[in-house]
Each structure stands twice: as structure tokens, then as C-alpha cells.
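As promised in the previous annual report, we have extended the structural survey to additional targets. Below is the entry for 6-carboxy-5,6,7,8-tetrahydropterin synthase.
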Amino acid sequence: MFVIRKFKFDAAHNLESYKGKCERLHGHTYRLVVIVEGIPDSEGMIIDFVELKDIVKREVIDILDHSYINEIIKQPTAENIAIWIWQRLEEKLKRGNCHLYEIQVWETEDSGVIYRGEKIERRSE
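The corresponding C-alpha cell record, generated without further manual editing, is:
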């Protein structure tokens, strides 16, 4: 079973290792989806929605909202933002009955990434 919580934050960034218009400073209203997988506990919950909201707000939203993300994450692509968020949340959401399953980071309504904690090896071309 999965618990899903959606969030929004506004932030600016630029992609320094990119050739194109996104190398210039610009902003997004990001949408973040956090999915926790687990088994309901004795209270019938995988994780309390309020607790999940508080953790994500403290560990992610309060840091990234209205920020210049380049000061926090090197080359802040949606992919790198998703990895950074995963690293901030994975241990905080690990319980006997549940764990972080998936992070979705949406830069626009129709462009986003999904990350499930896989080890990523960068390719150089």
C-alpha cells in the first residue's frame, strides 16, 4: 500500500553545464510528490499525513522554497533535485512498517522526473 503527499515550492535556478536557454537564471513552481510504501500499523496508518507533511516541510520545502537552488545543489536539474530530496528524506521516513518508495519532481505541468533511490552512475560523452 502507498501513502502519497503532494507539495509545491517556488525556486530559481540556472543550469551552468547546459547549452541553451536554461543556462540563464529562471524560476519554476515545482511540484513534489512523495510516496511512502508500507503496511498499516495498529492505528491503521502507514504514516500519518500530518507527520509526513511536517517532515517534508522541514527537510525540503523550508530549504528550497523561494531559494536560488544553485546555492544548495550543484547543477540543479530535476534529476539532481530528486536525488537531493531522496537523500534528505530516506532515513527520516524509514520505519518498521514503511519506507520511502518514490520521489517525483515536476518542473512544469508536463515535465518531471521519478526517482526511487537507484544508484546513478553518470555517463560522460
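The longest helix spans residues 49-64. The first strand starts at residue 2 and ends at 13. These points will be discussed at the next consortium meeting with the crystallography subgroup.
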